[in-house]
Every structure is written in structure tokens, then in C-alpha cells.
């Protein structure tokens, strides 16, 4: 009992800071969504007008669908790439030092500026960019492709470029913990590589896959800057629409949409956490 | 394992890995090369000569606003966020080794903080400050917004670190007559030290690079990511790449320092 009390005291600063700067802001956003807005200012109130407005607008559903599309495509791509790279590093690179070195090589870009790495695609994708010039030089096309920059393609390319590491790192971490003897035992029992992958490696990497999925899905669903810049302002995601509302000081409308988004994100995350008990797996 | 098909899959995967690394690094490499663009060159290839023109332009022209001030604020803010994150996550991690009243709720609060879109955290904090009649300020509301992002990361890393920590080591020290403070300082802390460096590195860089959470919480004075993001809308010269090269270079120095410290600590222990 005494020790539990001590543990509670140790966690108190974390609890206090998270309540102040995450819990309270969340409550505030929910409260804000019920406030009224008279065209100039917003006031504490209890009205459902913001929700009615958000739900009745066809635009809302279009941009929600658009956001879900971005999230789904990015999730599939980062999962495939992240899993394959982690699998290669853990099961095909035998020397531990080389393995860790190559993993660190993948993590270095993560420590540098996101904005700058995004801008770095412009010289590749632009009308006179490297891709178009190379394609024209090989004769594959005779006019520059327009869809490369300022398009959904550019947005998803940037997402995958920036977020794959968030999938790779947790999967690498859980794969590295897999006991080699288990894999050897499966081999001795006559399992094919595909069977080992499906019945041993994927189930034992599930914590990493779950964590990585949570990271990638929430990063994509929370983004407004990449979609705005890389689509050239042509595409909208939920948060970029919200950001437009905020810029015009339509805070209550933005908050109503936010509550909807947070609900979707939390349902997604709790489904993932229900399938994989991340906390007890991490504590293993 | 040395069958023919195995080696084929090995080479295919190696090729995939090389392509992945190229994909990861190519924007950075392009930024680096183009930052040395000649004075008449543009945002894309080809290079029209090599020069330091755009770097000197950053320091001499007033076109780029208070770049130096934004940089200083970002450095100070990320150092503060790092310090708080390391200390708070360390103790919370120790606490979480037992199930205490509210531990489940706190874990879920950390997950919520992690998955909440950054701009909403910022909107919430900004509105709370406004409602209370306070001004948003990069050192108070800005720091708090960053902590809502770095603390959950710190906690998750501490879970992973303490996972490999054997409680018997502390028991042994206690049996040998160590006081709680001595156990903490002479047993627990040295063993989890490399993990704390990792927490520090995350705290520092996540805060240094944070954009959405900063936007509505730093008040009138911008941090570096906001400043750079604003510049992307107005500046259409390779000066943008020069900023990129400089900030990337600084980040790399910080990482090298962190890993140097980890390996030094590891060597000392041997």
C-alpha cells in the first residue's frame, strides 16, 4: 500500500502537466464547440448550432472522406515499407553492429526539420524538376507531367517520406526482441519462410505494428501544413479546413469539427489498443 | 539458410533497403546541394555555379525577418522541454512499475495527448489562456504545448527502458543498507542513463521541430519552425535551402553529441 502511494507520488508531476496541457485543452475544445458565435466574437453558451452547421454541410463529409483516404493510403504504404525494412534489418543483417548502424542511418533524417525535408521534394517534383527532366531525357514522355507537384501524389509521397520511420522504429524494436530459437524451431518443424512470416514473425511484431499504426494514422489525420503546401492549396483535410476556420476566428465551428475528428481518432486508437494491449506488452 | 532462394530474397531486400534509404535522404541531399546555388540560380536544378551567396544573404539581408531570434527561442525552448521531459518521465517511469490508483487513467491521458492533433492542443491551450485573461507566451503556453507532445514519448521510452531493468539490483542495494536516495543515485540512475539520453534526444528534437502545437501558443514571438514555415510562403529563392542546410547541420551536431555521450557512458561502465 505504502509503495503504491510512493509510485503515485512519482507519477504526479507527469499527471499534473498532462492534465494541464492535454486534458484541460481537450475539455476546452469540447466546451468551445458548444459556444455561440455572432459573426464577430464567440461567447460561452450551450448551443448545438455549430454541430448542426458542421453535420449539415456536404463539404464536411467530403473533407472527412479525403482525410480518411490520405490516412488509409499512407498507412498501407508505411506499413508495407516499414515492415519490409525492419524484417530485412532484423532477419537478414546478421552482424548486430551493422544492424544497429543501418537502423540509425534510417533515423537520422527524423532528427532534422520536417518543413525543410518537405521543401526538399520541390526540386524533384516540379515542372522542371529532376523526375520530369529524367523522364523527358529517356524519351518516356515528351511533356512534363503536371501531377507530380501540388497534387494528392505529392502529399502522399511526403507523408510516406516523413512518417515511415514512425512505423519502422516500433516494428524494428519488437522484431528485435523475437527469440531466434522460436524461428529456428519453426524451421526445424518444416515451416516454409512464408509460414514463419505469417505464423511467427507477424504475430510477435504486433505491438510494434500497433504502435506504428497509431503514430502514422494520427500524424496524417492531424496534419494541415503538408496537405496545404504539397497540394498547392487544392486539397483539404479536416485539420486544414479547421485551420482556415481558426484563421477567420470561427473557433466554435473549428471546435465542433475537431470534436468529430477526435472522436474518430480515439475510436481508431481504442480499436487498435483493444486488439493489442500495448501497455502490458511494453511492460513485458 | 544458404539455399539459392534465400540468397535471392536477401539481395532483393538489400536492393529495397538501398532504395528506401535513397528515398529517405534525397530531399535532404537536394536541399544541401541547392543551398550552394549560384546567385542567379533558382529553386530547382541545374546549379548555375557554386557560391555561398544564399548563406551570406541570410545574415546580411533583412528579408528573412528575425531568423536569429526565432532560432534562439527555439533552442532555449527545446532545452527547457528536454530538461522537464527527462526528469518528469524518469520519475513517472519509476512510478509506473507498480499499478497505482489512477495509473490506467494516466496512461490513457498520455495516449490521448499523443494522438490529439497538435493544432487542437494548441487551440485548447490558447483558448484557456484567453479565457483566463492571460497572454500566450512561448515560455509558458508554448512550453506547455510542447510538453503535451514530448512527455508521452518520454513515458513510452521509459516503459521500454525499465522493461529490461531488473528490480533485484535495487533490492540488493537496499539489503546492503543503502538509503532510498543512494539506491536512486548509485544504482537506478546509472543503469537507466543511456535510456534517459534517448528521452533527452527525443524531448529536444521533438520540441525543436514542433510546428502545429506552437502555432496558437507561442504568442507574438515565433519559434524557428513557424518562422521557416512562414518563409516558405514568401521566399522563393535558394535562401530557403540555405536555412535548411544550416538547421540540418545543427541538428546533426546535437545527435552526434547525444550518441557520443551514450557511448562514453557505456564505455565507462565496462
Walkthrough of the structure:
With 284 residues, chain A is mainly α. Chain A has a single domain (58-282), classed as MetI-like (MetI-like fold, Orthogonal Bundle). Chain A is 75% helix and 1% strand. Chain A is built from 15 helices and two strands. Chain A has helices spanning 2-32, 49-56, 58-91, 96-107, 114-119, 122-125, 130-138, 152-176, 180-188, 193-204, 206-221, 225-230, 238-247, 251-275, 278-282, and strands at residues 36-37, 42-43. In chain A, strands 1-2 form a two-stranded antiparallel sheet. In chain A, a hairpin with a 4-residue loop joins strand 1 and strand 2. Chain A starts with a helix and ends with a helix. By secondary structure, chain B is mostly helical. Chain B has a domain at 65-234: MetI-like (MetI-like fold, Orthogonal Bundle), CATH 1.10.3720. In chain B, 76% of the residues lie in helices and 0% in strands. Chain B is globular. The two termini of chain B are 35 Å apart. The model of chain B has no long low-confidence stretch (mean pLDDT 86). Chains A and B meet through helix 1, helix 3, helix 4, helix 5 and helix 6 of A and helix 1, helix 3, helix 4, helix 5 and helix 6 of B.
Structural features:
heterodimer; A: about 280 residues; mainly alpha; MetI-like fold; two-stranded antiparallel sheet; 15 helices; B: about 270 residues; 11 helices
